[in-house]
Every structure is written in C-alpha cells, then in structure tokens.
Amino acid sequence: MEEGQSSSTNLPAGSASRSSSPTTSWCRFFKEAAPEFQNLKFHSHVRGKKVSITRKDVVDEIQYWSSSVVGYVMGKKPYYHYFKSYVEKRWSKNFKLMYLKDGFFLVHFHDKTDVNKVLSRIHTFEGKPIILKRWSKNVNLEKEVLELVPIWIRIYDLPIHCRKAHVVSMVCSFFAKLIDMDDLELNQDKGRYLRVMVEVDVKEELPNSMVVDIHGIDCEITLEYE
To answer: What is the domain extent for residue 78?
Structure first.
C-alpha cells in the first residue's frame, strides 16, 4: 500500500457509508404514512410474560360495542351482501355488519335504540329464523340446540271474514302456535293469502293443507312455508 493511501479504498463500494449510517426501524415508514401508528408502542414489561388485559384497557371499546347484537341464521350462512341489504331494509340504515366465527354475525348500530327495537321482534331471513342476542363482553358464540323455531307461513283459501286474530289462532293451533300475523291493511295480497308467523317443532312434519269446518261446511286451506 502506498504511503498516504486510505485502506478504505479496498472495501466494496458503499460499505463505509452503510456502516456509518444510524440504525433505522422499518416502523418509521409506517408512522410517516399513517399518523395513527404514533399511538402504538412496545410494552417491554410484558415481553415473555402472560399478558393481562384489564377493564381499564378496553372500557371505551366495551361502551362502543354495547349497541350491538350478535346472532346467526338457522341453516346455511347467508351471503354477506344479501344479508347486509336485509339489515339495511328491515333494521336500520346506520349500522356496521361483521361476520364472526361459525356462521355468527355482529351488527353494530349507531343508534342504541335500534338494539331494543330489533330484539323486540322475531325475524327471519329467506324463511329461516334469525337467532339474536344482545352483545356483551362475555357473549357466548355457540349455537343452541333448538326444538321450537319460528317460521312464516302463507295461508291460502281462508275466507276473508275468518281472518281475525282469534280465529287464525284457532286454525294455526292445529299444528303450531301463532306468534304474529301481517297487518291486513299493509298486505297488498290480502285477498289471496294470510301471512302468519308460527312456532313449530323442528322434529314434526308440517302439513301442506288442512280442513277447517266453517259454519258446518268443510273448507280445505293450503299452507305454504316461506
């Protein structure tokens, strides 16, 4: 080596500059792109230990999700966009829908009053019962074994003068328990059929028709299950 010549000339190009650069974490690039990352930090006191989450850590989230319901549709899980349209049409315009494990869904409402409104009624999706419960931090996401389920039925050929609640309840008692019935004034097809919700035993075979004695005359009515 000639006198006065630096030994660094024998190093690969760029080696000296790399070794002299300060250490940079890749997180810096994310923080610059998304300021919310500034709130994230490394908790060195739990490294390698059991993590303990207290109520204080999540109190805001508990409050936020308290205006939610969880549930599932009996049978096959509905497609997300179809079910989202159902919720928007039937339950609320302001909500967030999330699919959870094992066919469960969560609907978070912006207005807490929507929770009570939804839970106060029985709902079906494409003729299948929707099982609902209020969300809580300890909510159990396991499907119950149900023996009695609600379903919607269309009753055809029942004379118009026999469509009062007391009479319809008698008719339905032949095979089920009447729970609800459409408002006749809101049913545009009220001349064709009566739409009712009944509670049925999942183990029993449901009839497609039945004979009713109306003023001493046998009248056969047709039952269609939605």
So the answer is: 55-134
Determine the residue type at 34. A
Tokens of 160: 């118009």
| Alpha carbon distance 62, 71 (integer Å) | 18
99-134, pLDDT tens digit by residue? 999 999 999 999 999 999 999 887 888 777 888 999
In 3-state terms, what secondary structure has residue 36? helix
CA 171 to chain centre: 34
Mean pLDDT of 153-174: 87
Amino acid at 116: N
* CATH code for the domain of 212: 3.30.70
User: 175 with 121, same domain?
Assistant: no
Rounded to whole angstroms, the Cα distance separating 46 from 196 reads 58
**Token pair for 58:** 């999540």
Task: Verify that 168 and 213 share a domain, yes or no.
Answer: yes
> Cα separation of 150 and 148, whole Å?
7
How far is CA 221 from each of CA 80, 214, 224, rounded to the nearest angstrom?
37, 11, 10
Domain boundary among 106, 134, 162: 134
Residue 76 pLDDT > 50, yes or no? yes
